[in-house]
Each structure stands twice: as structure tokens, then as C-alpha cells.
Amino acid sequence: MGLTSNMNKQTVDEVRDRIARRVRREFGVTVKSAAIQQVYQAAALCVRDDIMDVWADERERSKGDGRKNVVYLCAEYLIGRAFTNNLINLGMYETYEKALEELGFDIGAIEEQEADAGLGNGGLGRLAACFLDSLSTLNIPSIGFGIRYEYGFFRQEIHDGMQREMPDTWSIDRDVWEAERADRVFPVQFGGQVEEQWGADGRLKVVYHNAQTVLAEACDIPIVGYRSKLPATLRLWRAHAPSSFDLTRFNQGDFEGAVAERELAESISKVLYPDDSHNQGQELRLRQFYFLVSATMQFLVQSHKNQYGDLRTFADKIAVQINDTHPALAVPEFIRILIDEEGFTWEEAVDLAQRTFNYTNHTILPEALECWPAETMQRLLPRIYRIIETIDARFRDRVWRNHPGDADLVGRMAIINGGKVRMANLCVLSCGHVNGVSQLHGRILQSTVFRDFYTVYPERFCGITNGVTQRRWLGVANPRLRRLVDDTIGEGFMTDWRKISELEPFAADASFRQAYDQVKAANKVEFSNWMLKSRGVEVDPAMVIDAQAKRLHEYKRQLMKALHILAIYDGIVEGRAHKMPPTTFVFAAKAAPGYKRAKDIIRLINSVAKLVSSDERTRDLIRVVFLENYDVTAAQHLVAAADISEQISTAGMEASGTSNMKFMLNGALTLGTMDGANIEIAEQVGPKNIFIFGARVEELDRMKAEGSYNPRAVVEANPHLQRVLRHLVDGSLPTSDGSRFEDIYYSLAPEGGQGDAYFVLHDFASYDQVFAQVMSAYVDRDRWISSAVVNTAKAGYFSSDRAIEDYANQIWQL
Ligand SMILES: *Cc1c(COP(=O)(O)O)cnc(C)c1O
């Protein structure tokens, strides 16, 4: 019996009465006088009760069935709101909608009461959330482990065109979905000295002196899959100082020291680092990662022992996926537990770890590859460092034996080198499988960063293309399209990704196309209303919506898009513009607080917005909107309304991308480079239904190797581009303080040939040309909508269900 069979029996009357009762009991008021936030909480608690009932039973039941569990280890989960998603997946949405209506509330307004849980930065964290949804929907026993950050990803405000970061207080009313597990508490040790004692029995005993202990307490969130029998669990660890902690110091009269130490302990789960694809190397971050993996591995070992008695079967019952290198210390932590506490030999422990762990790489950007100063790690995690040293030393010996004299090779492959601990090398060496997140990215890993490893261990490597869950990204985000698809081919596609392809023939059906077009038009009106209400910004729903929504990063090239809008502006003003339908360009992006160039680009985008809307020659033709505080909820509104999906990263730099998939599913046409999963989208939809521009990765590699790229020459050959760049420095772009954009200008085409590391200028002409094709394609409505339908129909492959099936078959061996 699954979650839904027992809930579907509930009638609207029952649900209505339960909510009303809950409002009274939780808040001591009647529904009539309750605040809408209270009604939201009461309704959510009712949903939660039902989930918890079945969750408890199913967790108990699945314990006994001996199936292999998937453990997903990730420092980030970009969850978003849960209320609507849970209701849809439970099959209870309409019942609650009516019940709330009878109580006098619109479910849409109730939904808006929930905070957006943003415990992640971007694509990586959203992938983790989509994967849990799929694991649950596919009824694979699974549990995700993460950190319960008290403050999630910062809230972005734009003042005078500039980003300001505000704390995100998601957890104030978030407890609704959480179950605290005071019975699941594990001590995590930091610092101190480690003493290795060899006992008379020949066994190693490890003694810690002066270590600091922090407690990890579990908070569980159920992840309800679609009509699933088995909700997945997201277990987030929260840091506590043990109560004994300050006692000694208190007794010695050192009150300040005691409080400071308590704060240091609890700071571990205080805040999410807002860096995406950038490794800053702060010590607190290393503490966070070790805290996460130590608590997790202690729990997994303990529960496996309780259930099976014998740790030697661990890898038969548990597959651990390490999502990026952040949780990589799980490997040495597991080895530590096996050797120090469970009496394993070194060889046994390393072998078991290898069969347990797998590693997903997310980026090859050098600034993102995680390295820790050996000194820091040694001081903070002395025992773990010792284990890594041993893995490293044994590996160096092996390489040296096989390639005598090749010190370069040893240096490249070693874990510890030049005073740094290279986490990616640790992962590749000690995990059973290593995967990239698209086919291109998988190949790039083999030929670049992990080339040496690939030569030795080719069987470890593969590429598994990312996916997104169609439940949230179609079912929740686009109810109109979901209904149209339901009515046309049935609702099977919600759990069987292959089925959405049955929509393809309807691209040729004029009445279906009309219905599809009406859905998009209605979504644009709704998006426009939502923008006005939530952001105070007007969007004309009659205009084309061209969207670029993702973290702000130079390699994603929001700058190219902004410069191109300036080119369109110049074209209109100078009377040489191509004809194009009136278009709103939507940018949504948060910049890491310390990433100056990214923040400058946000300032530029807002300045361009001001320029084009204050000039009456352009204001009715083009608009630029910066969607403040991009989060999962904003993404849901945007993907349903967009016509064009901008996926314009420098070829070879976007490992996969997932917003490309969300937009495609909702019928936006991609304007993109041959990068990441764009390549596979192009394969799926065919060249007629996607717009590809720009240099291919091979061409860029060649130019980089030869040093032959000369951005100055590109600018000199293109007078329109010269005109565009002049805007950056001639004062024509309005800013509140009269400042200009010199830094950006000089980064692009400085004297002497260097510059433009992301090939913005190189790809500019190609982008301009293909953009014009997009605009003329848009006005051929029959063809455009038919292409949009094909995009939706071909999006099945990009379901996270397909991705999870691939992991299950190729990596986890379920
Ligand atoms: C999907 C998503 C992302 C990832 O976008 P990419 O274009 O793949 O980088 C980032 N942030 C949010 C809120 C998302 O929903």
C-alpha cells in the first residue's frame, strides 16, 4: 500500500475540517480570524501528517527487505517550495484546492506563503533535489544527506542597479516539513593530536588528545515522489555544541572562551557559502564538509551493523554517490571508522570503500577544483589527513614502479602535491566509478583533467547526462501544459519519461498547436502578473520572452547577451535594424558576493535596461528586465512563460546545464552553443528545432593551444561591435553615480592581444546572425509552435528518471 492509496479516500469535507481544526489547535484562532500564513501552516501540517504516517511504515518495511540503498551525498540541496509539489505527487491537489476554497482561501495565495528552501547555489544543488524526487518516484530505497544551513543562499536585492545580499531566513516557518531526530546524534571530532598505539595484539589503537567535539543532529525531510510507495528521506545535519562542552571552561571562570567555543561549534551549520564553481578554501567550509560526511558515515556504519551484523556486506547493501568533491572526505572517514573502530586491515578497508563510493564531477574550471592546504587539513583533521597521506604514498609507489623515473606523472596524479590536497584526485583514485554530467563533459574529463587516470583505469569513467524532474518542472511549474498533455496522451509521462514522445505527431495537428499556443500565452499573462506582484516590475505579456536564467558567471556569458542588446539598440537608433517582434529580455542571476566582475555585469545589465526603456525609439520594441532574487520558485514561473532559452556558454565550459532542459520541456526554443547537454538537446530535436551558434570546443582548443586568438582584430573588423563597446566607456549608459564600465571594456580587448578569455567577441557575430534567424522564425507561428511541441515531446530523455535509471544500471548495480 502506497502513500496515495490511503489518502485519496479523503474527501474535500474531511480535508476542510482537518485544516480548520489544525488552525485552532496550532494557533488558538478560528479560520475566520486566522492570518493566511497560519492557514498555510495548518494545511501544510495536514499534508505532513499523512506523509509521516506512511513514511514511518514504509521505512520500517523497507528496512527488512534487504534491498540495496542509494545514498546521495551532497553539500547542497536546492529544494524550493514543497507544498504544491507534495500535493500533486500525492494526487491530492484538487481536494486541497477545493477544501481551501470552501474555507475562503485561494490555493495560489496559500502557496505563496511558503519560503523557498534554497540550501544550494544553483545547478548542482537543484540536481540533487531532482534526483531525490526521481529516486522516490522510482521506488528506489534512498536517502540524501546534507547540511541544514540556518541561512541558505542569500536573498538578492537590486539597488541602483547593483546587487545587495540579504540573509535568507528560510527556516523561520519551514519546520513544517521537518522531523527532528534527537535520537540520531553523532559526535564529530576536530583538531587536537592523534596518537597511534600498536597494542600487543598487533592492532592499532588511535587515541585523540584535545580534540573538539561537535554534535551532529539529524533533521529529516520526506521527499514525496509521484504516487510513490516510498518517500525518499533528505537528512540534514545540524551542528550543536555538547552540553559538557562549556562546563569545564565555565567552571574555570572562562565564560567568554566557553561562549566563543560554543559559537564556533554551532557556526558549522550556520550558513551556505554563496560560491558557485569557485573554491575559496575557507577553513569553516572544510569543517562543514567533514561534519557532513563524518555524521553520515557513522550513521551508515551503525545502521548497517544493526541490520546485518557484518560490515563486510556493506557495499552489497549501500551505494554512495559523492556529488562533486565537497563530500569527498567520506572516503577517508569510512576508512578511518573501519580501521580504527572496526578492526579492518588497510587493504580490506580501502577495497570496501572502493566498492561503496562513486564520484560525480561537475566542472573542469580550474578555479572550481577543490584543493585544501595540507597544513590546514592536518591541523583540523589530523587522523583523516594521515589516512589521505597513506593512500597517496601507496599510490605514488605504484605509479613509480610502473613508470620508473616519470616524476611528472607521479606529480600530476598524486593527491598531495605542492602542499595542497587535491580532492578530485582523491575521488578518482578511491571511487569505483567516476562520471561526468553530459556526454561531452564525460569525454572532456577523459581527455583533460583525468587523462592520466583514464589511461590507467578506463573502466571507471563514464558520462551520465543530467536530468530534471518532470513532476516539478512541468507538473508544478506549468499546470496548463500538464493538463493539455494529460488530455492528449494521458498522464503516463509523469512516471514514464518515454511516453512524452507520443506528443510528437501532434506538432502537425493545427488544433493542438492552437491549444499549445494558448497555454503559452496564458502563462505569459500569469508570469506578468506574478512579476508585478512579487517584484513590482511590469512585463508586457504580448512581447516575446527571451530568458537567460542561471548563476552569473563569465563562462555563461551574460555579458555577450547584454552587449548584443546594445547592438540591437544601436541598430534601431541608427535605423538599420532587422525587423523583429517586440521582445523582453529577462535576466535572472545571482553573483557570488566576492565576484566583482559578475557584480559589474549585473550593473551593466540594469544600465542597459534603463537605456532601452528610457529611449522612446526603442522602448516599445525591446525591454530588459532583471528578475531579482532568482530561486526555484522564480524559475518555475519563468520556464512556463519563456519563448526563447539562452544557453550561450563558451563551448567546453558548461558541464551539462539543467535550465536548458527545463525551458525545453516547457516549449521554449534553445538559442545556444554546442556545449554541455545542449549538444544532446540538438540531437534529440534535430537542427530545425534549435538555434546553434558559435565556436565548437575543438576550434577553441586549437586557438588556445596556438595562442592565435586576437580579440582586438575581431573588434577592428566589426564596426558594429566597436560601437557597442564604446557604450561601456563613453558615458552613454545611465548609472546612478555616473560610473562607467571600464573594467569590462579593458577585459575584452586590451592592447597586446590577450583578453576575452571567454570568447565573447569571437562568438558575437555568429550570435548576432543566429539571433536574427530566431526572430524571423518566431513570426512564422505555425512553424515556431510546431518546433516548441517537438521540444516538449523530445524532453523525455532529459528527465531525471532517465538519469537515475542510468546511474542504477551503470554505477549502482541495483
Ligand atoms: C535549474 C536552476 C539552476 C541551474 O541553471 P543552469 O542554467 O543549468 O546553470 C540554477 N538556479 C535555479 C534556481 C534553477 O532552478
UniProtKB/TrEMBL annotation:
<keyword id="KW-0808">Transferase</keyword>
<dbReference type="Pfam" id="PF00343">
    <property type="entry name" value="Phosphorylase"/>
</dbReference>
<dbReference type="GO" id="GO:0030170">
    <property type="term" value="F:pyridoxal phosphate binding"/>
</dbReference>
<keyword id="KW-0663">Pyridoxal phosphate</keyword>
<keyword id="KW-0328">Glycosyltransferase</keyword>
<dbReference type="GO" id="GO:0005737">
    <property type="term" value="C:cytoplasm"/>
</dbReference>
<dbReference type="InterPro" id="IPR035090">
    <property type="entry name" value="Pyridoxal_P_attach_site"/>
</dbReference>
<comment type="function">
    <text>Allosteric enzyme that catalyzes the rate-limiting step in glycogen catabolism, the phosphorolytic cleavage of glycogen to produce glucose-1-phosphate, and plays a central role in maintaining cellular and organismal glucose homeostasis.</text>
</comment>
<dbReference type="InterPro" id="IPR011833">
    <property type="entry name" value="Glycg_phsphrylas"/>
</dbReference>
<protein>
    <recommendedName>
        <fullName>Alpha-1,4 glucan phosphorylase</fullName>
        <ecNumber>2.4.1.1</ecNumber>
    </recommendedName>
</protein>
<comment type="similarity">
    <text>Belongs to the glycogen phosphorylase family.</text>
</comment>
<dbReference type="GO" id="GO:0008184">
    <property type="term" value="F:glycogen phosphorylase activity"/>
</dbReference>
<dbReference type="GO" id="GO:0005980">
    <property type="term" value="P:glycogen catabolic process"/>
</dbReference>
<dbReference type="InterPro" id="IPR000811">
    <property type="entry name" value="Glyco_trans_35"/>
</dbReference>
<feature type="modified residue" description="N6-(pyridoxal phosphate)lysine">
    <location>
        <position position="662"/>
    </location>
</feature>
<keyword id="KW-0119">Carbohydrate metabolism</keyword>
<comment type="function">
    <text>Phosphorylase is an important allosteric enzyme in carbohydrate metabolism. Enzymes from different sources differ in their regulatory mechanisms and in their natural substrates. However, all known phosphorylases share catalytic and structural properties.</text>
</comment>
<keyword id="KW-0021">Allosteric enzyme</keyword>
